């Protein structure tokens, strides 16, 4: 059975995911990720495919997971590695051992979430459609007063993963988390036992979005790194539909879809930008986009490209490869919904190849009904950046500007009302700059503030939090020469943008991996802001003064509730989720500047 490989092809109600590996096309994966080296001819140091074909599938699998090809396969899921090993060797692998041990499942019936309310927990990426990443006191059940009592209650190991999983989503006593191996878990939010487990085609980096479906149930939607969007029954994990939303081989869903009024709004990004590190790769043809899908069927309603024209062939680079463009303007963040204006907002990334385009590094407002672009604000023009820009022998044509800043808006814009009832859109990007824009006036600037240093590694990398008074800004900047001067947290006055406080990290001391950059998204509750660092320190700050109230070193080994060997490490992308007296956070990160891989989900309780 092939699960919807063709663009827009929908599989309805086909149930189980045990077929995740079988559903893969090993040949297509090989062509996308491996052929550039292994089919490169006799002068290549990489053994030719026929040579690899003489290996056993087990030996190939081992090379991809822990051996010499670990780096090349680090972003492939468990199912994709298996499909590659079977394709290259031409031989089947024995059946996959159980991913979750039977003792990790909840005993008895842990009950169905009969309740369809999703607002009593943390839903999607930003805890609500405006992406404030702010949890109210009654839902949080944790406040400044009991922060010192926070204690680790349990740890859950993500089997085989090298990153700590997606933003934990909690509703009706269940916690939903995905990982880069393609696993999706529904856990009992109090005890951490497994209610159900699914395995999908590719890695899940996008948070799970929950919503009431037309049939009276609760649906969980999410995307994977092969640009599929899935809908599953949140009660059982049963697949309802799966759609591929972009046919570029490197297209990926990094951020969670947004759900509003029966529709899913899906942001599309890609890994093509990094692939270009090899100048033999014809860079680039991916274009970022946003789609609206019918949430019940997965059917596409509209797709809006962040670059209008299709890429065409340009000059040859110095390796003799034709350069294509325009490309890029990926959408790395969850759309923010403006119900009042019937508009959604996203931030876009840099261009990958020339020519530069109008909507890169921009905040873009899109009409929710038609998909038409209502307005956009480009904050950095001519930012053409790709993997060759880091090479000493930068390929002139594929990276026209060695100084290109690579300052994506990887953060969801936050929609908030000021005290005088005026709407404000708060956006930050990798430059470390924060903007307040007026959504009622085509995104006109209200204020700007340089909240910290910026770089290609960020600046503001994954997420701001906003309450009614302040904007909490993490800084991901890292200077290897003076690590202690890197990172830090700041708070800006929501109405003026003025700096309210900024707090440096305590010195690294003798910590082995010192990287105090605040790359992960931050989370706010009344009185407290939580932020994690690339070296695994989780801090709680006073929202008023910036004083550090609590600190926990997550970069440790844990004995886990599911029996999986697990450790914490770098914290990036997802941040803390706070619901009902508990704080959940993933630790470990092996992409984009992560220095300590890890695979743990931690649950703290305040009592
Ligand atoms: C950037 C170039 C490059 C890419 C991309 C690449 N490989 Fe390799 N691969 C090599 C080189 C060079 C070697 C031999 C040297 C070594 O073992 O490091 C190798 C060796 C291997 C081996 C033999 C390892 C062993 O233990 O003998 C396997 C299997 C393999 N690659 C599979 C893959 C697969 C599958 C992919 C795609 C996911 C891939 N490679 C992508 C360059 C690459």
Model description:
The strands form ten sheets. A five-stranded antiparallel beta sheet has the order 1-10-9-8-7, with no helix packed on it. Strands 11, 12, 13, 14 and 15 form a five-stranded antiparallel beta sheet that branches. With 607 residues, the chain is mainly β. It has a domain of 219 residues: Beta Barrel (Lipocalin), CATH 2.40.128.630. The radius of gyration is 23 Å and the shape is globular. Helix content is 7%, strand content 31%. Bound molecules: heme C (HEC). The site of heme C (HEC) has 19 residues, from helix 2 and helix 4.
SSE topology:
Layout: E1 11-15, H1 26-33, H2 35-38, H3 49-52, H4 57-65, H5 78-89, H6 137-140, E2 151-157, E3 169-171, E4 174-178, E5 183-188, E6 194-199, E7 209-212, E8 218-223, E9 228-233, E10 239-244, E11 251-252, E12 258-260, E13 263-270, H7 272-275, E14 289-294, E15 300-305, E16 312-316, E17 322-325, E18 336-338, E19 343-347, E20 362-367, E21 373-378, E22 414-417, E23 423-428, E24 433-438, E25 444-450, E26 465-466, E27 470-474, E28 489-493, E29 499-503, E30 523-525, E31 528-532, E32 537-542, E33 548-553, E34 557-558, E35 566-567, E36 577-579, E37 582-587, E38 600-605
Antiparallel strand pairs: 1-10, 2-38, 3-4, 4-5, 5-6, 7-8, 8-9, 9-10, 11-13, 12-13, 13-14, 14-15, 16-17, 18-19, 19-20, 20-21, 22-23, 23-24, 24-25, 26-27, 27-28, 28-29, 30-31, 31-32, 32-33, 34-35, 36-37, 37-38
Bound molecules: heme C.
